[in-house]
Please model this.
Amino acid sequence: MGIGNNGGDPGIWLSDTTVPINFSGLTVSGGNNAFRIGQCSNGNRTGKCVSNNIVFSNVNGSGNLNSASGPCMDITGQSYWIWLRDFGCTGNAVRATGGRFSNAAAAILVDGAGNQGNGLINIKDTNLASGGIKITGYY
Model:
């Protein structure tokens, strides 16, 4: 099953959820991020919309590859208990504003800046292209 989005919103956006969620066998493409976890709909990333108990298994994604998009997976807002298994994500290291070391260039961004940090993130058997894992702020 594939999910597509050509606008700015991510293909999957989880905000303020503590109910266990399992995504399996998906390909997600488009949007400025393929996946966004822990950011409120008003843009708040300080931990008011913490999300946890999330599993991505056999899931692949990529965002729009232009200067305004990235990272592929954005984890913020003190989110925790997240599992990425047999997971793939394409970063935006070639076209991201700010270059290949910017937050937008990462395939997976774990952004603890402005909140108490994210944790208990398990990444196993993952394929990341055109960007790696970037951790900022508290961890």
In short: The CA atoms of residues 117 and 138 lie 4 Å apart. The radius of gyration is 13 Å. Strands lie at 2-5, 12-14, 21-30, 35-37, 52-62, 73-75, 80-90, 108-112, 119-129, 133-137. The mean pLDDT is 91.
